Amino acid sequence: MLGTQEKFAFFSQASSMDRKILSYRGAKRVFTLIACLTLLQGLCLIVQAIFLAEVVTHLFDGKSVQDEVRQMLLFFSAFAGRYFCVFLIQTISERFAERTSSDLSSHFLAKLFKLGPKFAANEGTGNLVTLVMEGVGQARQYLQLFPPKMVSNVVLPVMILCYVFTLDRLSAVILAVAMPVLIVFMVLLGLAAQKKMNDRWTSYRVLSNHFIDSLRGLSTLRYLGLSRHHAESIRRVSDKYRKMTMRTLSLAFMSSFALDFFSMLSIAFVAVALGLRLINGQITLFPALTVLILAPEFFLPVRELGQDYHATLDGKEAAHKLLAYSDQETDDERLAHQKAFPEQRWNQDSSLEICNCTYVYPSGTRSALSSIQVEARGFTKIGIVGASGAGKSTLIDLIGGFISAESGIIRVNNQQTVLNHEDWRKQITYIPQHPYLFSGSLKDNITFYSPESTDEEVMQAIEKAGLHALVSKMNHGLEERIGAGGRQLSGGQEQRIALARAYLCNRPILLLDEPTAHLDIETEYELKETMIQLFKGKLVFLATHRLHWMDQMDEMIVMANGKITEYGTPTELVRKNGFYATLVRTQLEGL
Amino acid sequence: MRTWIVPYMMKHWRRLSLSVFVSLLGALCAAGLLFTSGYLISKAALRPENILMIYVPIVGVRTFGIFRAVFQYTARLTSHDTILRILSEMRTRLYNKLEPVALFHRSYYQAGDVLAILSDDMEHLQDIYLRTALPGATAVIVYGFWIAVVGSLDGIFALLIGLYLLLLLVFFPLFSLLWSRHKRKSLLKHRHQLYEKMTDAVLGIGDWILSGRQQAFLAAHDQLEKQATQENRRLEDFRRLRDLLSQLLIGGAVLIILYWTGGMAADGHISRTLIAAFVLVIFSISETLIPVSEAVERLPQYNEAFQRLNTIAGKEPKYSINESSIQPKLDERSVTICADNLFYRYSENEDWAVENISLSIHQGERVALIGRSGAGKSTLTHLIYGALKPQHGTITLNGIPCEHFGHRMSRRISVLNQNPHLFDTSVLNNIKLGNEQASFEAIVQATKWVRLHEKIERLPNGYQTQMHEAGSIFSGGEQERLALARILLQDNPIVILDEPTVGLDPITEKELLQTIFETLEGKTLLWITHHLTGTEKMNQIIFMEDGRFEMHGTHQQLLDRYPRYRRLYQLDVPEHLRRQL
User: Which chain regions cross the lipid bilayer (chain A) (predicted)?
Assistant: First the structure.
């Protein structure tokens, strides 16, 4: 809404922007082409003005229209040439923007897969989707609009000014003086508006969020008995917001007012000065008319600069953000290729040793895991417990190869290696609290890890996962759409889909992160029965608070503050009477 | 369109026409500036004896030059002011549409943040005025004005140039509207698919990595993106070509004007000083006509927004509340909930959501309500809250049917649900929502009870800290505690606890539940829960399945009577662990 208040920033940032933009693929060639075409456009523009002025002067002098046909056609050709140049420039920059934005998004996606889920969660999944969907669009707009605008602002006014100077010095001086004055006023007024905006930022934010905040909290308002009278407060706040916005706008619009005012006024000055000197015979009609035709063109590029200003500013930010993500170095690239991975698939005799491993959150100095020591052999079932924030999920992420340890040694089958290796990941199934359902058919979702499965195998997996009742209720059977935009499933059903996936791909290592705590007790009970079947013949790591899982576990890891504090069989730990025993007691005691 | 635009246009027609009028004056000043300056220098080129001969055009040029900017500025301000007024009315209207179904939002709009989209849609409607109606109206009037001026000199030519400019004003816009409509639709479809793909990529990133199918995804995504790009390119190419042709048409218009004015001047019908004036002014007039194509092309966009607003906010509330005129006494501290052969279903062809339920809960009793999702727990609580009206049977508070309470139910029953909404205001105001008359001391007392007082005191601005800053400071359990403080201030005899501890770890859960039961001592509690820890302390435990009570009794009764209950209780409180301890 605040269309133009920051136009000034354009000038101050123009210099910093162009350097970055040149680093995109093919940008230099594009700029050169645009610059050449803009020169040509400027030439056509001047020629067109000359011929038009000539025709008008001749007609004014009483020549007949028939004699001027040649000049008129020349005028039209120059005019057409000018807009054809514009057409070409826009085509070139559009293609450039298309190519670059598509590069940006595919690089970003490829990098995202390398950075992994931990990164996605840290950055906020919603933010990332928005960035890649809207950000890429904005970046494209910026890349499309900015180069031609920048070039035409540099080239056209200078060309016009030079030519006007040869025709009439006074007009050239008027125009040359008007431009900086105009820019200074725009900048000053823009800054003032910006300052006013910043001063009131807090109240602005509250006022502008008030409506959506109210909608989100509508049921809470209703329960508190406030929802009915709240309509009045929405009206009041809206009104306040309007008044506040108008006060800022009245200042913000001043900067485009300055643009209009000074450009129009200087055209008027040029016209009057020409008129006065025409009377005195100091100048003739032809040059005077040419100058008058060129004067509005002199200001045109600056005026166009202001349009879509916000779009370009957002786009620039988005483009640079995407680029920054893509440039980020990943652990993958640092480590994965240096280490070989044992070829053998995980079996009864395999072993995994994590020695003294540490992991630090990328954002802070606090370590999420410190001196972790884990040993797992064959098809052991290992439970992980601890308060929230103790590092359980991070440990699961480490074992799953989603993150890599900062220090420490990892051995698989006594061979030193890293876990963020494709050959390790291929052996893992991971079931989180809320398995993600892709928007697609039920079959697509179940066969996600093994796309080549036959329908028969899928049906078997469905049977094992206890999904048959649900599938038989679906109108389209295996082809029923689920996920966003499809049929909604309950938490228990989501888990069963994940179980069906796991049954189908039958990988030897299973990681579970609190898979049942959010479910009602009966669903949890039934799901547990199914899960226990899945555990057979697999190495299992299960992070949970729920006590009933403990008797399924061979060993327990107790975590606190990123460290492993207790380690042993459940019975041993109860006897030890440490944190684990406290945790068990807390839950057994009831309220 | 009819419901979301027309009434507002009618109501605000004065302001709207004022803004059109002022922006028209702005456009006329721009044209006037070029016209008079063309005239001025032509007149001056005749070298009149007296400078006074060109005094009027000089004044004209200066006036137009100055006022063009002034009018433009005024027009922008008035139009924005009007739009903001309309927006504010629309917000209130949307709110009033959504308010009656407030408790059913989750079933109304399941996926995504529909509410945010709605509010965005409404913001976009302002473009209808600012980017379509205003430039469109201005262009039409400028066009009419120009034809009138030319017509006063030469009727036939006015007709010709009028038809010629209609190409710009009507033909191009209509053509681009028709041409781009389908292209836009399929582009939108592709965009949507891309969006789904992206969401799948980001939210399902762990699965992609483990499955080793990243390359397949990238290839599929590239393919889809290419299609979208191609469609977008077709639209862009079309627009560029249209703009080029529009410019060429303007060039043609200049030639036509040259030809006409040249002829007219030669025949002495007009003064030759007007040639330059007419030629210059045609540029500025065509400038107002070019944006019309783009303004019209936007129309389908608005339609999408309207459709969303209509489908969501346009439908009549399915569940209406009929508040009875009987004024239930408000000071009752002892309330008995009583249900008798209660039936409810959401529509004729659905199964009963609540089927033949009878129960009675006396003041101060604690009841646990357990069941799978879809078992009818929410429907039952909605019936108790009076948000739904039973088809058969009765549900009453002290003999008064629940649905008669309407909005006054908030003086009887409080609700603590998972993810209580904390509003974007100060911590103090958030708690105060429970009772707006509450004194500061009462509020502090409530936060002390829920054990948040010290934490709040330590915040940078204490109770005045804004929620959006504190939001990340309060953990899930603490946010529940804040909501609990509200409920304490509300001080109702009945509290419904709707799974307030989902997602909390067992230690936090236990502490929170202890606080809840401690502070709500003496109130009737209806606790929807998914675990059995704590059920020993309940007066009644209700297991719901398919709308019916499957098991109903005290903890001990259920343990004695139902093997199923024993099995489930084992899951929460494993016997062997107890023995080990």
Answer: 30-52, 72-89, 150-166, 172-193, 249-276
The topology (CATH level 3) of B335-412+494-581 is Rossmann fold (3.40.50)
Secondary structure of chain B: what % helix, strand, coil (to 5)?
Answer: 65, 10, 25
State the best of A64, A255, A279, A297 to mutate against chain B, taking most chain B CBs within 10 Å. A279
CB B544 within 8 A of CB B371: yes
pLDDT tops 70 at residue B110: no
A145 and A244 fall within a common domain: yes
pLDDT for A366-390, tens place per residue? 678 888 999 999 999 999 998 877 8
User: Please, which residues have CB within 8 angstroms of residue A226's CB and are 6 or more apart in sequence?
Assistant: B410, B433
Same fold, B6-313 and B416-491: no
- Give the whole-angstrom CA distance, residue B392 versus residue B182: 51
Shared domain for A487 and A368, answered yes or no, is no
Low-confidence ranges of chain A (pLDDT < 70): 1-19, 310-311, 329-339, 363-366
pLDDT higher than 50, residue B186: yes
Q: How far apart are CA A556 and CA A570, in angstroms?
A: 6
- Residue span of the structural domain in which A489 resides: 438-504
Q: Could you please report the per-residue DSSP string of B24-47?
A: HHHHHHHHHHHHHHHHHHHHHHT-
Domain at B6-313: CATH architecture: Up-down Bundle (1.20)
Q: Provide the 10 A C-beta neighbour count for residue B560.
A: 11
Q: Identify which of B266, B434, B514 has the shortest CB distance to residue A591.
A: B514
* Statement to judge: residues A256 and A349 lie in one domain: no
ipTM of the complex: 0.85
The CATH architecture assigned to B416-491 reads: 3-Layer(aba) Sandwich (3.40)
Mind spelling out the 3-state secondary structure of A313-335?
A: HHHHHHHHHHHHHHHCCCHHHHH
Boundary (domain end) residue, out of A295, A327, A359: A327
Phi and psi for A565 in degrees, rounded to 5? -100, -30
Whether residues A500 and A517 share a domain: the answer is no
Is A515 inside any structural domain? yes
At A546 the pLDDT is 86
Quick check: B389 contacting A, CB < 8 Å?
Answer: no
Q: Does any CB of chain B come closer than 8 Å to the CB of residue A231?
A: yes
pLDDT for B314 beyond 80: no
B574 CB within 8 Å of a chain A CB: yes
Note whether residue A322 is domain-resident.
yes
The answer on A513 and A498 residing in a single domain is: no
In angstroms, the CA B317 to CA B101 distance is: 6
Task: Please tell me if residue A535 touches chain B, with a CB cutoff of 8 Å.
Answer: no
Displacement of CA B123 from its chain's centroid (Å): 8
| CA distance to partner chain A, nearest, from residue B322 (Å) | 14
pLDDT confidence of residue B102: 78
Say if A1 falls within a structural domain: no
Residues A190 and A128 in one domain: yes
pLDDT digits 0-9 by tens, B343-393: 999 888 888 999 999 999 999 999 999 998 889 998 999 999 998 899 999
CATH number at residue A352: 3.40.50.300
In this prediction, residue B111 carries a pLDDT of: 40
| Nearest of A124, A181, A58 to residue B259 by alpha carbon | A58
Boundary-marking domain end, from A479, A504, A529: A504
Quick check: is A500 in a domain?
Answer: yes
Could you report the per-residue pLDDT of B34-63, keeping only the tens digit for each? 999 999 999 999 888 887 888 899 999 999
Q: Which chain B residues have a beta carbon less than 8 Å from that of A98? A: 229, 232-233
* Domain boundary assignment for chain B: 6-313, 335-412+494-581, 416-491
CA distance A242 to chain B (A): 6
Number of domains in chain A: 3
| Chain B: residue whose CA lies nearest to A258 | B69
Beta bridge partners of B360: B338
